[in-house]
Amino acid sequence: MPNEEASAIMRQWTAIEKEMPNVLVVRCEFVSQRNEGDRWGPALPRHQEIPACYFTRNFGSTKSYLGDGQWRDEMHPPGPPWGKTHPPKKSMAFFSANGQGIAIFSPSATMHWNFGRHGNGTSDDPVAGPCMHVAPLDNVALGEKSTYRFRYWLLVGDASTLAPRLDELWNQYSTDKAELVGRGEAAVR
């Protein structure tokens, strides 16, 4: 809300994944510190983007990773509204015309992934309006006093570099789940 301090703390830790120099692991924590009985009411399940990523528009080719070096093209007109897809290996990548890519692996996602282009044209300017969007989703009831934790991975490289890394991450972390702890309703997912 405008001019209202949030009743929450958000933390993030970023590290290079062990023995994978082109892979970052990002741990996130959201700590709700709302007052009991505040105007926001009881904890209700809501979509949480884990995470929401925006890339420059020159990464205009969108693909879901299927495993074993296989990719599926994802198409949707510029949004919002965003396209929705269910990447089977919880991974999507965005590629530039020269083949350079950035991928996200979010094994804690329990719902569809929003994705798509915003605006028209191509740009490599990080502050330009045209961009690419991706957001794996989870459904979470954040209570007045609850803590929500998740992690995801970001990778860079071309398709032939990304595929074996995504397979390796899937083999190691496919059972990774988000964690929600707190009182009462907040502990129910």
Key traits:
mainly beta, 13 strands, 189 residues, globular, eight-stranded antiparallel β-sheet
What's a quick, concise take on this entry?
With 189 residues, the chain is mostly beta strands. The protein has one helix at residues 159-173, and strands spanning 8-16, 23-32, 45-49, 53-56, 61-67, 70-73, 83-85, 91-95, 101-105, 113-118, 131-141, 146-157, 179-182.
Structure, described:
It is built from one helix and 13 strands, in the order ββββββββββββαβ. Strands 1, 2, 5, 6, 8, 9, 12 and 13 form an eight-stranded antiparallel sheet that branches. Strands 3, 4, 7, 10 and 11 form a five-stranded antiparallel sheet that branches. The chain has one domain. The two termini are 26 Å apart. With 189 residues, it is mostly beta strands.
Strand percentage? 35-45%
What's the overall average pLDDT, rounded?
A: 93
**N-end to C-end Cα span:** 26 Å
- The structural class is mainly beta
Question: What's the SSE pattern?
Answer: EEEEEEEEEEEEHE
- The shape is globular
- Describe the largest sheet: 8 strands, antiparallel
Please give the domain count: 1
Q: Which value, in Å, is the CA radius of gyration? A: 18 Å
Q: Percent of residues in helical segments?
A: under 10%
Q: Low-confidence segments, ≥5 residues, pLDDT <50?
A: 184-189
Furnish the topology, listing elements before pairings.
Blueprint: E1 8-16, E2 23-32, E3 45-49, E4 53-56, E5 61-67, E6 70-73, E7 83-85, E8 91-95, E9 101-105, E10 113-118, E11 131-141, E12 146-157, H1 159-173, E13 179-182
